[in-house]
Write a sequence for this structure.
């Protein structure tokens, strides 16, 4: 019985997180990108990062995959360059943030983890874009994106910190 | 902020500044070539420098026309059949450090240096 309510609770919480991440994904798609570079805020990363530190790596993967699929259904659809780019970005940033959280927690706060996420997201997106365009020179966008990754990554890290602090106060979220 | 955070920020800023330097201050090659690609295939090439040139080209992309403006030593995209106009906002390019890419229309305008072949990653 107890195990059953636990799995229901997990289902509810993960669904809520996927919903929030999808909405952030869609909202971010509606905001204009920073001119020239296509740099974006990385809002949905707030939820992936929070899930990693709060509910573990497996649940975070479910959130990352769920929100890119759902978020893209609201936007460009699943057979599109946009979906391939955000899917690859979400997967790589989930993988590297999880690794950094697992092995280097001592050295990184949430801000550092979110910067790792921003960097890996950009790498994956540029890689997919250059694959689709068959043009390696697109990688030369990378340094400019890194400049924008600093303020957006710090912002995402701060928001995640406030979010986890708020969730600490809600008994329902405690494992 | 922990020590690792600060190291990441400093590394990112260093990479970014190095990139900006090569974007905007690397000099053009007098023997360079302007290459226009559609969907990965080279469709047109022009010499980078041609005295007094000031012409517009209409390139047929996947979704429509991309209008390219050629001048002596530089090139830009002025209009394109794409939603985000990143290619237009890229502005003039005059060296191989930075290509103009229109992802939705699959059009790429880039400059190739004479000395180092097809792919240039400076």
């Amino acid at each position: 019985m107890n195990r059953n309510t636990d799995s229901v609770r997990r289902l509810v919480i993960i669904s809520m997180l996927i919903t929030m991440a999808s909405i952030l994904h869609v909202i971010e798609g509606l905001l204009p990108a920073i001119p020239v570079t296509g740099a974006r805020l990385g809002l949905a990363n707030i939820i992936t990062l929070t899930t990693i530190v709060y509910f573990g790596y497996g649940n975070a993967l479910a959130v990352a995959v769920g929100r890119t699929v759902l978020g893209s259904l609201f936007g460009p659809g699943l057979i599109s360059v946009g979906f391939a780019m955000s899917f690859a970005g979400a997967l790589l940033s989930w993988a590297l943030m999880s690794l950094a959280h697992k092995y280097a927690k001592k050295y990184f706060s949430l801000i550092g983890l979110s910067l790792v996420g921003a960097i890996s997201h950009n790498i994956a997106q540029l890689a997919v874009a250059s694959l689709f365009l068959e043009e390696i020179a697109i990688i030369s966008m990378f340094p400019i994106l890194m400049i924008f990754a600093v303020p957006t990554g710090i912002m995402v890290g701060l928001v995640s910190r406030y979010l986890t602090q708020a969730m600490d106060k809600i008994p329902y979220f405690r494992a | 902020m922990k020590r690792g955070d600060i190291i990441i920020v400093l590394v990112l800023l260093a990479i970014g500044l190095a990139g900006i330097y090569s974007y905007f201050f690397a000099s053009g090659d007098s023997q360079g070539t302007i290459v226009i690609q559609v969907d990965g295939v080279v469709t047109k090439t022009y010499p980078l420098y041609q005295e007094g040139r000031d012409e517009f080209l209409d390139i047929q992309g996947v979704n429509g026309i991309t209008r390219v403006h050629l001048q002596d030593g530089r090139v830009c995209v002025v209009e394109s059949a794409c939603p985000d106009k990143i290619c237009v906002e890229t502005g003039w390019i005059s060296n191989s450090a930075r290509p103009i890419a229109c992802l939705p229309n699959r059009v790429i305008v880039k400059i190739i240096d004479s000395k180092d072949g097809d792919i240039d990653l400076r």
Remarks:
- Chain B touches chain A through 38 residues (CB under 8 Å).
- Helices of chain B lie at 3-25, 86-90.
- The first helix of chain B runs from residue 3 to 25.
